């Protein structure tokens, strides 16, 4: 660890040099760096000899990341919600972002075909189950199936014809995830009258069904994955290296959401490890390499080995060159971190 204290010339008072945070770039005393910043957020597992940053990320930035980026990454991504499936998190600790989630699950079969759901922990069932998003479904005249709309997406009365939907006739409207009274009120706002005709089976009784998931990966999630990449670089190359101007775009994107004139994060389903395809090892991966242009530094991040985020850490890096190429596998089963070969 770098020594930051420095005795003044008089010897009476001790002057302590400030430390510049690698994210906000503010100079702060050592006392503003009490928490350790984890390269892989703790919500994604604890590891032996874990990679943590000491005296590099100030407590204010650490707090901001925890409350904003990491919370969304843990609760509102497919990777985050898969943690219970891979034993990284217990089912009863599952915290759902609710029906406003970035993840929308569409039911593909059974009496609720076409309806939307989200995952949440059910105390009754003692496990994570599908819960209905409050929504209203209308009969599709041609197919005889229903098309569902979350409450804030219900079309206006005059749009029904062009959408090929009906709201008249018996059983043309189905209400899911909310009460009859509330539904009647919502529909009345659209000029549609609703008459209660009876219940269909509840979603609880039809759990093991085919579903289709759509996840919105927005900038908050991109920032959270970019932070893992930048933290990893800082862990191996140190504060002085990552404080260089060449990393200002990625730094400001992670901390403040500032966009660069080029894409900073891309997501794909290509595996990082050369020998993997559909079947993959369970754990997280982070790698750093020089880009094909030979002057840009990029990273790859994959949580639970599900999606691959490519992060442009520095485009046209202008500092002194050094060998930054490296990669690690974070095994979520045994908590070990393995260095990857780089051929
Ligand atoms: Zn800071």
Describe this structure in words.
It is a single chain. 20% of the residues lie in helices and 26% in strands. The chain has two domains: 37-70 and 217-339, no CATH class; 103-215, no CATH class. It is an alpha+beta fold and 343 residues long. Zinc ion binds next to helix 1.
Task: Give a nutshell description of this structure.
With 343 residues, this protein is of the alpha+beta class. The chain folds into two domains: 37-70 and 217-339, no CATH class; 103-215, no CATH class.
Write the layout of secondary structure elements.
Layout: E1 5-7, E2 14-16, E3 19-20, E4 27-28, E5 37-38, E6 52-53, H1 59-75, H2 78-81, E7 103-107, E8 116-122, E9 127-132, E10 135-140, E11 146-150, H3 160-163, E12 165-166, E13 173-176, H4 180-189, E14 211-215, H5 219-237, H6 239-242, H7 248-256, E15 265-268, E16 283-290, E17 297-302, E18 308-314, E19 326-331, E20 337-339
Antiparallel strand pairs: 1-2, 3-4, 5-6, 7-8, 7-14, 8-9, 10-11, 10-12, 10-13, 15-18, 16-17, 16-19, 17-18, 19-20
Strand order of the largest sheet: 15-18-17-16-19-20
DSSP strand (E) fraction? 25-35%
Helix-strand category? alpha+beta
Ions, cofactors, ligands: which are bound?
A: zinc ion
Number of helical runs?
7
Record field, number of beta strands: 20
Mean pLDDT figure: 89
Largest sheet: 6 strands, antiparallel
Shape: elongated
Uncertain runs with pLDDT below 50, 5 residues or more? 1-12
Fraction in helix? 10-25%
**Total discrete domains:** 2
């Amino acid at each position: 660890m770098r020594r930051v204290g420095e005795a003044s010339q008089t010897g009476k008072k001790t002057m302590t040099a400030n430390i510049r945070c690698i994210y906000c770039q503010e100079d702060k005393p050592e006392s503003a760096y009490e928490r350790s910043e984890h390269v892989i957020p703790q919500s994604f597992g604890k590891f032996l000899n874990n990679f943590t940053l000491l005296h590099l990320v100030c407590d204010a930035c650490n707090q901001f990341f925890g409350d904003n980026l990491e919370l969304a990454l843990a609760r509102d991504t497919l990777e985050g919600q898969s943690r219970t499936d891979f034993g990284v998190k217990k089912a009863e600790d599952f915290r759902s972002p609710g029906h406003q989630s970035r993840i929308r699950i569409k039911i593909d079969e059974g009496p609720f075909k076409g309806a939307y759901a989200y995952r949440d922990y059910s105390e009754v069932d003692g496990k994570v189950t599908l819960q209905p998003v409050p929504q209203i479904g209308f009969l599709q005249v041609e197919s005889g199936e229903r098309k569902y709309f979350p409450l804030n997406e219900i079309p206006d009365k005059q749009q029904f014809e062009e959408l090929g939907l009906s709201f008249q006739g018996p059983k043309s409207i189905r209400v899911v995830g909310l009460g009859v009274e509330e539904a009647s009120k919502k529909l009345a706002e659209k000029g549609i009258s609703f008459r209660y005709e009876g219940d269909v089976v509840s979603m609880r009784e039809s759990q093991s069904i085919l579903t289709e998931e759509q996840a919105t990966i927005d900038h908050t999630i991109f920032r959270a994955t970019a932070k893992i990449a930048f933290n990893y670089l800082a862990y191996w190359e140190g504060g002085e290296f990552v404080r260089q101007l060449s990393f200002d775009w990625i730094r400001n994107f992670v901390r403040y959401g500032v966009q660069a004139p080029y894409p900073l994060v891309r997501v794909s389903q290509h595996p990082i490890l050369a020998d993997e395809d559909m079947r993959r090892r369970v754990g997280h991966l982070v790698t750093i390499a020089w880009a094909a242009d030979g002057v840009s530094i990029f990273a790859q991040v994959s949580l639970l080995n599900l999606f691959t985020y490519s992060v442009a850490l520095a485009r046209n890096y202008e500092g002194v060159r050094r060998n930054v190429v490296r990669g690690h596998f974070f095994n979520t089963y045994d908590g070990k971190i393995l260095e990857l070969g780089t051929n």
